[in-house]
Write a structure and sequence with these properties.
mainly alpha
Length: 164
Amino acid sequence: MDLNPINQLDWRVILAAMAIFTLTFLAMRRYYFAPFIEVMERRRAFIEEADRKTAEAEEERERASADSEKMLAEARERAEEIVREAREATETERRRMLGEASARMGETLEAGRRKIAAERDAELANLHSQAVECVRLACAKIVGDVDERRVIDAVDSRIARRQT
């Protein structure tokens, strides 16, 4: 018995082994590798699609971010404009109200001055008449009967000297 493996090779065994290997390979390729490759291809396509959508979403986010910053800047500018207009309107209204209050104050002051002047004139007239009466009574007791016109002239000249 020959134990050399090369001498024991039979071409039928080799052909059978090749046939079995080929059939096994074809069966494995069709029922195992093909579905596995198909799953891998679908996964690769899914990943590529996801990457594409991610890139699009990133671009859209950047555009939206730029747009939102622009809108925010415009909104801030508009808000500042509204605040400025409100301040101007408030200042205008404050000045108007101060003008009205000043005018009313002037009118009230002038009315008060007129009232004080009228009361002063009334008091001066009252004092004048009382002074004339006092001088007339004093002269009547001292001298007797006096001319009313002379008493008034004397009181008036004394008051005129006192005011200067």
